[in-house]
Amino acid sequence: MERPDCSTPAQQQRQDQQPANPKDCLQCRVIGTGVCVAASAYLAVHNYGQPPAGPVHRAVMLAAAGGFLALGIARAIL
């Protein structure tokens, strides 16, 4: 059973004008990149600033830091 379209004509017109694949604004991309890179740096520094932990813990922390760094770079480029 389909839901009826309850949008107003103005809302329908705005939806028709929006591109199918909208790009984020520059501010959103800069903030998103900064947050991901900062999280990566925090995890990396936290990993080396603490007393030695087990090798699995270090590997997981470095993997998470690398993941955030890759996400930040991808966010900046794409």
Word description of this protein:
By secondary structure, the chain is mainly α. The protein has a domain at 24-77. The protein contains three helices and no strands. It has helices spanning 9-17, 26-49, 55-77. Helix 2 (26-49) packs antiparallel against helix 3 (55-77). The two termini are 38 Å apart. The model has no long low-confidence stretch (mean pLDDT 81).
Question: Biggest β-sheet, characterized?
Answer: none
Shape: elongated
The helix/strand series, from N terminus to C terminus, equals HHH
Helix content: over 70%
Strand content: under 5%
Instruction: Output mean pLDDT.
Output: 81
Number of strands: 0
Counting helices, strands and paired strands, the structural category is mainly alpha
Instruction: State Rg.
Output: 21 Å
Which consecutive residue ranges, at least 5 long each, have pLDDT under 50?
none
The first-to-last residue Cα distance is: 38 Å
> Can you count the helices?
3
